[in-house]
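Entry 14. Ran structure prediction on the chain below.
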Amino acid sequence: MAQILKEEYRERILNASLAEFFNYGYEEASMRRIAVDAKMSVGNLYHYYPNKEKLFNALVQDTIVAFNTIILKQSTFELNEKDRNTWFKDQVKQLTQGLVEVYSKHQTETLILLRYSKLNDQIAQSIKHVIDGIILQWFPAIEAQNKQVETLCTMLADAIFAGLSRLFEDAYQSKFEIDIDWTLETYLNLFTLMLEAGDTIYEAK
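Output, structure tokens:
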């Protein structure tokens, strides 16, 4: 019975903290308000989660793992016998399906993550890791440590992250009136055109 009560308390805390972090963000979130919403004392809340950071991590951990699994999965690919455009579109489709699936299961947690600068920097870095691999396979003669390539990959990763943030925010506000699969896949495929344009400059050098 005691174990059941503990799990019930944890669920109440997590439900209350989900609304708190979504409405106020990490910095402005209040453990006192969370305790009130969870219908328990502040002392009891700290018994389960000794500080705001541990509570936040417990709330978003599953979502972080899901996103990292999807993103890092794309970093293991190798350019195969298909032409580069077809290969890249295949990767985009897989990435799109994975990201949309995670968002569909963890809508509120996803938006909390995307709004929290400490963690969204980590997501952007994971995306950059994928972009690094794509660029180095697309332009095989480019040196991995080339400063221009480093800057290019960062720019592309930032653009993709900004697009994801805007899409998921708008989709949440519109209650899925936006076709997020089509929008995200189309957006990511635009980067194919950018890489194709880069071919002209790259091959001319």
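The chain has a mean pLDDT of 83. Will compare against last week's run tomorrow.
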